[in-house]
């Protein structure tokens, strides 16, 4: 079940590159450590299976770690699209019935700051995988070009179809 295959891949080869962001390379071990720190903070905030997490994050390895962490806990994750107006963002966050919002920028609502989550000590150990097949894993929003963005739900079962290591190319 997603994200277990991704987490297993990070654990199996911690020295191999996981992501490149401009000139920066993040190893699988570094990414896994970020995920563990964020998981600990999300759990402390009471998040777990079926709870909703809005993500207002720039594109970065840290943002990807936040998504993996929320998915590991079995949360319903929705990411804001870059370029949304403040009104569209507020509407999506208000209608999404989120239990928490993770952000890397100041907002007019309580948020779990990504920097604060990452500043936690790495608890080590394994990352829990609490996803349940029929729970909503992700809300993907439309662009909002004809009004307010609308969400399409994807279950953990559906997303997991793309995360079968036996179907991955050798480079993955």
What labels describe this entry?
about 170 residues, alpha/beta, Rossmann fold, 6-stranded mixed beta sheet, two-stranded antiparallel sheet, about 35% helix, globular
Brief summary of the model shown:
The chain is of the alpha/beta class. The protein has helices spanning 4-12, 28-44, 61-72, 86-95, 114-118, 156-160, and strands at residues 17-21, 24-27, 52-56, 76-79, 100-103, 112-113, 136-141, 151-155.
Description of the structure:
By secondary structure, this protein is of the alpha/beta class. The chain has one domain (4-162): Rossmann fold, CATH 3.40.50. It is built from six helices and eight strands, in the order H-E-E-H-E-H-E-H-E-E-H-E-E-H. It has helices spanning 4-12, 28-44, 61-72, 86-95, 114-118, 156-160, and strands at residues 17-21, 24-27, 52-56, 76-79, 100-103, 112-113, 136-141, 151-155. Strands 6-5-3-4-7-8 form a six-stranded mixed β-sheet. Helix 1 crosses helix 2 and helix 2 (28-44) packs across helix 3. The longest helix is centred in the N-terminal third of the chain and has 17 residues, at 28-44. The radius of gyration is 16 Å and the shape is globular. The relative contact order is 0.19.
Gyration radius (Cα, Å) is 16 Å
- By DSSP (H or I, 4+ residues per run), the number of helices equals 6
- Low-pLDDT runs: none
The CATH superfamily title: ANL, N-terminal domain
What's the total count of β strands? Answer: 8
Percent of sequence in beta strands: 15-25%
* Portion of residues within helices: 25-40%
């Amino acid at each position: 079940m997603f994200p277990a295959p991704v987490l297993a891949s990070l654990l199996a080869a911690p020295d191999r590159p996981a992501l490149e962001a401009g000139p920066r390379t993040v190893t699988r071990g570094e990414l896994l450590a970020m995920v563990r720190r964020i998981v600990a903070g999300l759990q402390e905030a009471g998040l777990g299976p079926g709870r909703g997490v809005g993500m207002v994050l720039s594109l970065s390895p840290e943002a990807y770690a936040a998504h993996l962490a929320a998915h590991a806990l079995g949360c319903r994750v929705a990411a804001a699209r870059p370029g949304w107006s403040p009104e569209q963002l507020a509407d999506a966050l208000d209608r999404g019935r989120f239990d928490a919002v993770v952000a890397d920028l100041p907002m007019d609502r309580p948020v779990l700051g990504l920097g604060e989550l990452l500043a936690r000590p790495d608890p080590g150990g394994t990352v829990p995988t609490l996803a349940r097949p029929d729970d909503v894993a992700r809300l993907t929003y439309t662009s909002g070009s004809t009004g307010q963005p609308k969400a399409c739900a994807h279950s953990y079962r559906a997303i997991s179809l793309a995360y079968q290591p036996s179907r991955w190319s050798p480079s993955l």
